[in-house]
Amino acid sequence: MDRLKRAGPRKYFIAPIIILSLIIIALLVLTSALQIEIQPKSFRLFVVNGSPEVGSYTVLFALQDENQTNGPANGYVMLKIRDGHDTILHDSEFRVRSGDFRTYDDPLHGGRVIGYSWQIPVANISSGVPDQQGYGEAELTFLSFAGRSATDTYRVKIPSLPLP
Q: Do the beta carbons of residue 74 and residue 84 sit within 8 Å?
C-alpha cells in the first residue's frame, strides 16, 4: 500500500498504457493473420495477348509459391518488352496488393487461377526491329515485399519500324 501512495498519479497512467499496448499488438497479429498472401517462387501462368493490329496488349500472370500453391501477393510488377535486337521498347513498374488479384480462366492449362491482369495500349510501346517471325520478348518480374521474386519471358508481336 505504501508503494502505491508513493507512486502518486503515475499509477493511473501505467494500466492504460499496458492495455493500449496489448490492443495494438493484438490488432497487428490479427491483421497479419487475416492477410491472405503467398511468397512467390515462380509464375504459374504468364501470357500476353494482343498485337499492334489489335491496338493493345493484355498481360495476365498468376503466381505460385514453393509448394505450387497459387495465390495473391503484395509486391512490385516490372515489365520490359524488347525487340529482336534487345532494345527496350516498353518499361513499366508498379505496385500491386493482394486485394488487386482476381480469379481468371487459365488459357494454357485450363481451370481457374488467382492472378492479375492489365492492358497496355500499343501507343505506349515503341516500334522496334522484330525477329524473323515478327516477335519480340516480354520479360515480367514480380518482387514481393518480403524480397522473393519470380521472372519469366513470353514471345510477343511487337510494333515494327517502317522498312527504309
A: no
CA 142 to chain centre: 5
The number of angstroms, rounded, from the C-alpha of 42 to the middle of its chain's C-alpha atoms is 12
Q: Which residue pairs, CB below 8 angstroms and at least 24 apart, start in 54-57?
A: 54/122, 55/121, 55/122, 56/119, 56/120, 56/121, 56/122, 57/119, 57/120, 57/122, 57/125, 57/156
Q: Specify the 3-state DSSP secondary structure of 31.
A: helix
| pLDDT (tens digit per residue) in 15-38 | 677 787 888 887 666 555 445 789
What backbone torsions phi and psi does residue 10 show, to the nearest 5 degrees?
-60, -30
Q: Which helix (H) or strand (E) holds 2?
A: helix 2-7
Residue whose grid cell is 509448394: 67
The whole-angstrom separation of Cα 104 and Cα 120 is 18
Is the separation of the CB atoms in 62 and 43 below 8 Å?
A: yes
Choice between 78 and 29, residue whose per-residue pLDDT is larger: 78
Q: What stretches of 14-134 adopt beta strand conformation (E)?
A: 42-51, 56-64, 70-71, 75-82, 88-96, 102-105, 112-121
- Asked whether 93 and 58 are in contact (CB, 8 A), the reply is no
